[in-house]
Amino acid sequence: MFRFDLASSLSAGFGLVSPLTPALSPLRGEGEAAGKSVGTDLFEDHRARGALPSPLNGERARERGEAGLWYRKGIFAGGLLLFLFLGAQLRVVADDSFREGAAAYAAADYARAAGKFREAASNAPSSATFHNLGNAEWKNGRTGAAVLAWERAQWLDPFTTNATASLRFARHTAQLESPRLAWHEGASTWLPVNAWPLLASLSAWLAVAALMLPPIFRARRRDWHQALAAASFAVFLATLPALAGVHARAKFGVVLATKTPLRLTPTREGQVITSLPAGETARLERERGGYVFIRAGNDAAGWVERERFGMICGR
After folding, report:
1. What residues have CB less than 8 Å from 159, skipping those under 6 apart?
2. Beta partners for 275?
3. Best CA proximity match to 313, nearest among 263, 250, 257
4. Is residue 134 pLDDT above 50, yes or no?
5. Buried/exposed code over 102-122 (b: 16+ C-beta within 10 A; e: otherwise)
6. Which of 175, 178, 298, 315 is nearest to 306 (CA)?
7. Pair 162, 198 in one domain
8. Are residues 109 and 150 both part of a single domain?
9. Does pTM top 0.90 for this prediction?
10. What are the helix (H) ranges across 175-221?
11. Are residues 83 and 170 located together in one domain of the fold?
12. What is the DSSP string of 38-63?
């Protein structure tokens, strides 16, 4: 009698079915007939009291999934809007600096004009801004800074005629030599530097798409697909020398200070080989500490202080 009561209590409290107590078998059968067990009743009871979270049904799971998707879309849209807003603010600051620089240049305040144009170029680099900066620096008597600004204007837009004419005039006046370019470096000047990577990427992906998409969509590969792929691949191959030329031209820089000493070793005590004039264009070969090893157009090579040499590509 005592054993039966204990088993009944345990079975009723924890939903256990003991094979030693035949009297509990009707309860088990009733639970199976009702489609649930005593343990399920216990779970339902705890869930009704709020002790256990209820499982999500299909509708609620779909709603939560859609909410998470819209949340991620909102985060992406917010980040994009923030990026566009910051870009617009930089453009506004650059435009204000450009207008102030133009006003200062018109008032013959060339030092302030150079500072404002330099600020505008740092916020939003453009060929026109660098050209105006070169004009202001030339008026200030800084030949090296003027040549560097005009070279950067040509770097961004090789079709600018104003910067080309200004460079020709400055080099003729200061008796400076133009940099000697290899054939692939000259070919890289046919388009802006940012256009070559874009053209190479587009042509390569177009060639891949023309060859791979027809089989993917189970379409018959036609002659014009192969012709398009061949033409795109030819354009891609043609961009490779220009890309190499852009990489090589990125090593060019301009001597900024007048009578810059070209030293044999990268130290202040190093023997001076010669002095380079401001505006001299040279090629950077290596760097060490606060010095850079450059090779000028007359094949004079040596070390100069880093702050006396400005890179045309802007790095």
Report:
1. none
2. 261
3. 250
4. yes
5. bebbeeebbeebbbbbbbbbe
6. 315
7. no
8. yes
9. no
10. 183-187, 195-216
11. yes
12. HHHHHHHHHHHTTSSPPPP-HHHHHH
